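Posted in: Protein Modeling Q&A

I'm a second-year student putting together a small comparison for a lab meeting, and my supervisor asked me to include a predicted structure for HTH tetR-type domain-containing protein. I've never done this before, so apologies if this is the wrong subforum. The sequence is pasted below exactly as I got it from our records. If anyone can share the structure token output, I'd also love a short note on what stands out.
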Amino acid sequence: MPRHTDTKHILLDIARELFAEQGYRVTTLEQIAARAGITKPAVYRHYSSKQAILEALLKQADQQEQEIFTEDTSLPLRDRLIQVAHLYTGGFNPLMAVITGASDKREQVAEAEMHARKHMRQTLARLTGLFEREIQQGSVQGDPQILAVMFSSVIHGSQMHLSRNPILQEKQILEASIDVFLNGCLRDKGQLQA
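Accepted answer (user: helix_wrangler)
Welcome! Here is the predicted structure, written out as tokens:
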């Protein structure tokens, strides 16, 4: 039998998959338990509610994001943006998970949406900081907040298309989207070549 922490991680992985597949609103603790091969009461030994699972996923996504923004600051902008994009397309996109699906439990959805939006504001603040540094270094031009929102929009739009068109290659679409985005804000277009 898996250890306590292993089960917690397994439950998070399963919840992430289910939230991505069908949305936060329609995913139930019963579905998470069934996919994990455990009972619903066993889920409660690790998480008090579906909301608690979402909060754990948001915390995990926040930690991964912090690592991207603080690790190797010498990494070229394009590479860092690709890391951010992969975090949200290959990992957990909290806002997309909350937006998809439907439910009668509006209070739970409203609270989950509040947490997801808070996380997205933190992401935008980190992206704004990244673009501020790039502007100061002279590699990017524009308003850092607008660049952060535009980049986030490009990635979320790409993610929506990828989820509807599984034939498309995620890596190619994301990198092409980032290149188009950067082409509009780089001072020296030669920097785009990796």
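A couple of things worth pointing out for your meeting: The mean pLDDT is 80. The radius of gyration is 18 Å.
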